[in-house]
Design brief:
By secondary structure, this protein is an alpha/beta fold. The chain is 36% helix and 18% strand.
Amino acid sequence: MDDLAIIGVGMHPWGKWGRNFAEYGTFAAREAIAEAGIEWKDVGYISGAITVRNGYPGYVAGSTFARALGFNGAQVSSSYSACASGVTALQIARGQILSGATDVALVVGADTTPKGFLKPNEGDRPDDLDWLRFKLVGATNPVYFGLNARRRMDLYGATSEDFARVKVKNSRHAVHNERARFTKEYDVDDVLQSPVVSDPLRLLDICATSDGGAALVVCSLEYAASLGHRDPVRIGGLSTVTPTYPDTMIDLPYIATDSAGATPEPLRGFKQSIGDKVYAEAGLGPEDVDVAEVYDLSSSLELDWYEQLGFCAEGEAEQLLRDGVTEIGGRLPVNPSGGLGAFGEAVPAQAIAQVCELVWQLRGQAGARQVEGARVGITANQGLFGHGSSVLVRR
């Protein structure tokens, strides 16, 4: 698969601004277009990541952003894959460019979130798995995060202090990120003394919901060179895989697993397969990665990704953290942006925002949170309903 060039990135600061999501997306898009050194009229494809809470007629992401920026005749699409929506939108843009349908594409996602936990819309929908997990077992997302954390404790001996250390590490990084929502540095005692939300996880272990937007301008390497971008950050691989049957690990919104009685389990689990695909496409492996942005909806989930992306063996994530490997200055910094714990969830934007951070890191533009010498970066994300999400970028 040919690499694509990322020639522009943009991001609206995360927060609780309470405005229309299109404002955040157009802010990010204009920033990315300006950085790319192109005109809005040059964009031939707009790939929008949808926010379902505003995803009704008149608020379909691709066309909403196109109209807000000023219709220019570009082709357009909209993608919804829950938290993986941004990478699905990027995948579609890549296909358009590699097919020759367009020279340059804008990928953009933004969200305005309601107060409190994310929840399904009103109404009875007994055939909707997301609705069922709330109504049958009361499983808000933090319930799932707590169960996942308890699993790590039971299997690998993780402790509440380990989960707190993840937050402490990421808060040190976030202090230097002007686009993050939460930029206060915490210590372990701060985390352990915050209120319990879903035992064993506490308030500072769990990410909030936020408003925000992010955008990328992508094109072929040849088109980038014609604009004077001689050594752009490149997309070396994308992964949007689904699970393989039988899936024996409970993952919301599913509230039961497949049986492995007649068909044996796959050798690699779903989240491991997300990284497997992106490494195979890029022709690289975990040992080549210099920096990572992973999906830390809770602090315990970040530890899982260390193993699922191949940074260490199962059960060794806590030691990797304790040894300082995953902090800035360590061998493989994870979430130098501060992660979702510092940003909060702006669902259609967050997978794009992860790529933005890695672009700044590989360009050497991350300031006080810079990972020295970073040449290869990887993202990991996951959307409900079996949407994998990973992007590998390189210089």
